[in-house]
Amino acid sequence: MLKYLSAADRHHAAPAAWLSSYFLFSFADYFDRDNMHFGPLRVFNDDNVAAQSGFPQHPHSEMEIVTLVLEGEITHQDTMGNNTTIKAGEVQRMTAGTGLAHSEFNRQDKPLHLYQLWFIPSQRGLAPSYEQKDLDFTTTNKNELVPLVTGQKVLEDVVYMNSNSTVYWSNLEEGEDIEFKTFPIRLTFIYVKEGVIFVNGTELGPNDQARMTDEDVVQIRAAKDSQFILIDLPATEANY
């Protein structure tokens, strides 16, 4: 079964002049008891941060936090001692675990565009940790699903997280097809950055979502050159 959500179904938040954010799940001032999470995917925020602006230090705990930088770059500092810059095409993962604090700033003179995803971890009480990797995912590996972050150890050259989930990215050219094999005990989440794709026959445009349950195969065809994220997730809490 495929549930389609349009770009207009997202919640738009602009809590400061420098931030424009779209929440795909309940977050901050947006609460919908029917849209709290999809499997262990608890937060998916599509953020645009103005130049020379950002998030001052703030705390987190008991979440796996994944940041994908699409355009621009972000400067990150945290209480673990990390002081890094994450550029477009790079992936960052923080295990908040028992607790940490961090800040995120756009120190550049151009806007920053990023996706930030939070996953409910497979276990609580983990020690905070950090990983960052340049996978150049926005421009390379056309016409395939490229794994970026995973808790499934069979995949290599990816960022590891403590969740039985995998985040894929695709740069799919017009007329090309991808088949993703799944299981009824898994969930599949798709969010389109740009272009037009058909997912099991349903059309998705920019910023549209598909949330899929009880499927064996996900067929994806690009009607235009497209970029999208696909997340493979466990369906039951016991498998998070």
UniProtKB/TrEMBL annotation:
Residues 156-233 form the Quercetin 2,3-dioxygenase C-terminal cupin domain. It comes from the Bacteria. CDD domains: cupin_Yhhw_N (cd02910). SUPFAM superfamilies: RmlC-like cupins (SSF51182). InterPro entries: Pirin, Pirin_N_dom, Quercetinase_C, RmlC-like_jellyroll, RmlC_Cupin_sf. Pfam families: Pirin, Pirin_C_2. Residues 15-118 form the Pirin N-terminal domain. Belongs to the pirin family. This is Quercetin 2,3-dioxygenase.
